[in-house]
Amino acid sequence: MIKIDQLSKKYKEAEHYSVSEFDLEIVAGEIFGLLGPNGAGKTTLISMLSGLIKPTSGSFSIDGLDYSGNKKTLKKHIGIVPQEYALYPSLTALENLNYFGAMYGLKGPEFQNSVQEHLSILGLSEFARKKIQSYSGGMKRRINLIASILHKPKVLFLDEPTVGVDVQSKTVIIDFLKQLNHTGTTIIYTSHHLNEAEHFCTRVGIIDHGKLVGVGTPKDLVNNQKGAAHLEDVFLALTGKALRDHA
Hints:
The chain has 9 helices and 10 strands. It is 37% helix and 22% strand. The longest helix is centred in the last third of the chain and has 16 residues, at 167-182. The chain has one domain (2-239): Rossmann fold (3-Layer(aba) Sandwich), CATH 3.40.50. The strands form 2 sheets. A 6-stranded mixed β-sheet has the order 6-7-8-3-9-10, with helices on both faces. The chain has a 4-stranded antiparallel β-sheet with strand order 2-1-4-5, with helices on one face. By secondary structure, the protein is α/β, with parallel strands linked by helices. β7 (155-159), α6 and β8 (186-190) form a beta-alpha-beta unit.
């Protein structure tokens, strides 16, 4: 579904590449986790794959379509759930979903039924006519997710989809994503919740300093790393224990 070949990104005036000569193949139907420390290049990689920023060099294709010649078509095949809320706070949930649906040319009874179904599944039906600015963090995350899949994308990119939410919201979101994956959507997911990733992802890639330093199923990565009991042990062995905070 996704083929990445020597993909690199260096921001203007930056000293180092955020993503450097990155190679990876992701199979259709996977739940693929991109894991790495702060500043490792996860968001930059997803931003390139989703067409939000232009690569410095290299190439990639999604569902057989090369990025360089199919930018508009590719955007119809992908959904994006950014780390920051991509919603209009002064509009209601329904108004937001209708707006984003209109951007994809979606309308009519079938679309409205889909909206109502997703609101119900994610526990938001009774709040659909409330303004987003009155929503809790978990509710905003769930509406953000609905907005990203209204057009039934083949690939869904999620950047920290459960950050800052309570256990109940996280459980609902993960269960919904699993069901979405079962219907054929390939999921690319970043998170700092390694325990969540270990149980959610079919395969993971660990990134550090813009490069892929480990890839495989969570079970294989743990089994192949000496002394590792969990994915967190593998993560620390491959990326080190040095702090990555920056300002």
